[in-house]
Write a structure and sequence with these properties.
With 425 residues, the chain is of the alpha/beta class. The protein contains twelve helices and 20 strands. The strands form five sheets. Strands 11-10-7-6-5-1-12-13 form an eight-stranded mixed β-sheet. Strands 17-16-14-18-19 form a five-stranded mixed β-sheet. The protein starts with 6 loop residues before the first helix and ends in a 27-residue tail after the last helix.
Length: 425
């Protein structure tokens, strides 16, 4: 299903709407440390709070802690409308971490706008999945459409465990980048192009670049001056002067709308555009170094059960789940919650995670690999067992062994239910 991007969506995104930068905040979640290309202008750094540029972060988060961090930020920045992932490496050099983060954040914050910034090398295999997770904005960094030019910009490209260099690397990267634009547009995703202005290399190549990307469906372009970064191959490259920047943007404007208010955000930026909340770096480091599990905010346990006494129902067959909590007087039934309707693939299990957002675990008699993985990514422990509910609750709350816990091979998808052995849906 194609996501329909409304004017309201755009008006809440400070990077895509110039007026929104004054009223709507964004946060970048630094969950993608690895990169699959080496740009000659890039030097990724950690623990550096004094630089404001892409590739810099004070900490890297795992997906579950990214949600904890976002929860804490919401207490300090109530107007966060956009959640983005822009590094410090490339999201699709870290696809597992990024997709887990998106699923977990969507379960907790379904109304946020999701965006990604990538070089595009490994994006194509994940376009369907990010569209299903309601990613509505993607930025592609494309610094040219001729390999004799872009080969001077990239030191190497790593694809399918092989390293490419020179024009071979540039050709591979360009092929993958350009292929993604129409595929993203077919999913209704807004595509922004980032173009780094590099004097003497690509500053006279903007007209051809914008014509090509517009022809493929790109929506707008951001022409950003090079930042000569210490430790990079281009550290001694001169900065583009204002005359060059004006000329490049004027040429680009013949073909595409221009973004003119870019703040060159860090990979852990948080707050209004150009007005990052400095305290966010402290919060980020605290969350990153914490060992908390989030269980304090998840006091309940869900159970798939026919009658409320035994764990005896497959998750995919459950029309509802029972919710329990621990009290000084033992385990107490709280309520029954209706499960989302069958169908919808991964979306159903994201909806289940949202339904059980205050639950630290769910006890089931059986579960498919896919829903178990998604629930786990959203911070919900999935325990397969048979037997008394109290025994399972005792195991969860008091960290005791569950004697009736199912062995890993005791359940086969499609056995004991009306499924087709293709996973729950």
């Amino acid at each position: 299903m194609v996501k329909v991007i409304t004017k309201n969506d755009i008006a809440k995104h400070p990077c895509f709407d110039v007026e929104a930068r004054h009223t709507h905040a964004r946060v970048h979640l630094p969950v993608a440390p690895r990169c699959n290309i080496q740009c000659n202008y890039c030097n990724r750094k950690y623990d550096c709070v004094n630089e404001s540029r892409p590739g810099v972060t004070s900490s890297v988060l795992d997906p579950f802690k990214a949600v904890t961090y976002l929860k804490e930020l919401n207490k300090h920045i109530p107007n966060i409308s956009v959640v983005g992932i822009a590094g410090p490496g490339d999201p699709f050099a870290n696809p597992d971490e990024v997709l887990k983060t998106l699923r977990a954040v969507k379960a907790e914050f379904p109304d946020k706008i999701f965006c990604l910034s990538t070089n595009g090398l490994n994006l194509e295999p994940y376009i369907d999945e990010i569209a299903a997770l309601d990613v509505t904005h993607v930025t592609l960094t494309i610094n040219g459409v001729r390999t004799d030019i872009t080969s001077k910009i990239y030191r190497w490209v790593r694809y399918n465990k092989k390293v490419y260099r020179g024009e071979e690397a540039a050709a591979l990267l360009l092929e993958k980048q350009l292929a993604c634009i129409p595929l993203l547009k077919a999913k209704g995703i807004t595509v922004k192009i980032n173009f780094i202005i590099i004097p003497g290399i690509n500053d006279h190549h903007i007209d051809e670049t914008t014509r090509v990307v517009k022809g493929l469906g790109a929506d707008l372009i951001n022409c950003m001056p090079l930042i000569p970064t210490a430790g990079s191959n281009f550290e001694d490259m001169p900065k583009p002067d204002q005359k060059m920047i004006f000329r490049v943007r004027a040429e680009a404007k013949h073909h595409l709308p221009i973004m003119t208010h870019c703040a060159r955000c860090r990979a852990d930026a948080a707050g209004l555009l150009g007005q990052d909340m400095k305290e966010a770096y402290t919060i980020l480091q605290q969350v990153s170094s914490s060992v908390e599990t989030g269980e304090e905010s998840r006091p309940y346990v869900a159970v798939a059960t026919y009658e409320g006494h035994l764990v005896n129902l497959h998750l995919g067959e459950a029309k509802s789940v029972y919710i329990f909590r621990q009290t000084p007087n033992g385990f107490q039934y709280v309520e029954e919650r209706e499960m989302p309707d069958k169908g919808g693939g991964d979306q159903r299990w994201i909806d289940v995670a949202r339904l059980l957002i205050d639950c630290r675990a769910i006890l089931v008699a059986g579960v498919g690999e896919n829903p178990a993985s998604i629930l786990k990514e959203c911070g919900i422990r999935v325990v397969q067992m048979t037997g008394m509910i109290d025994e399972g609750l005792d195991g969860i709350y008091n960290n005791l062994p569950i004697r009736s816990i199912k062995k890993a091979d005791a359940f086969r998808c499609g056995s004991g239910c009306s499924g087709n052995a293709q996973g729950c849906a």
